[in-house]
Amino acid sequence: MKHTESAEGKSVRLLKIGEQIRHRLAEVLQRGEVNDPVLDGMIVSVSEVRVSPDLRHATAFVKAIGSDDEAMLKALRKNVRFLRGQVSRALSTKYTPELKFRLDESYAEASRIDALLRSPDVARDLDDDTETKADDNEP
């Protein structure tokens, strides 16, 4: 059997299963199927799910939009058995991975980079660089 890998080095199968899990988790959380008062009315973003090569473990990266991240993580961890059961219905694999939830830090990192790029020092450096390139192109 041919082993296909993506540009990131992960097998395409692992990426597909991770996406299936992500879609199912997002669907369950969006519909409010989890019977938990903390998660009721909370918007939870599931940005990525990474699956281990043996398909036994999956880490979901989540972020509460406009709410308390720590309370959301605690509620998700408390309801992990229910969520795993919901995921198992969407997968056609021999095993359903154990789910772990981690806070997605990519939003904070993106905001930090955006603020950095908008800072006056960087804008000045970018303007200087464009002027230098324009001067180099003139005959």
UniProtKB/TrEMBL annotation:
This is Ribosome-binding factor A. NCBIfam families: PRK00521.2-5, rbfA. PANTHER family: RIBOSOME-BINDING FACTOR A, CHLOROPLASTIC-RELATED. The lineage of its organism: Bacteria, Pseudomonadati, Pseudomonadota, Alphaproteobacteria, Sphingomonadales. Belongs to the RbfA family. It is found in: Cytoplasm. It comes from the Bacteria. It comes from Pacificimonas flava. One of several proteins that assist in the late maturation steps of the functional core of the 30S ribosomal subunit. Associates with free 30S ribosomal subunits (but not with 30S subunits that are part of 70S ribosomes or polysomes). Required for efficient processing of 16S rRNA. May interact with the 5'-terminal helix region of 16S rRNA. Gene3D superfamilies: 3.30.300.20. Keywords: Cytoplasm, Ribosome biogenesis. Monomer. Binds 30S ribosomal subunits, but not 50S ribosomal subunits or 70S ribosomes. GO terms for cellular component: cytosol. One of its GO terms (molecular function) is ribosomal small subunit binding. The gene is rbfA. One of its GO terms (biological process) is maturation of SSU-rRNA.
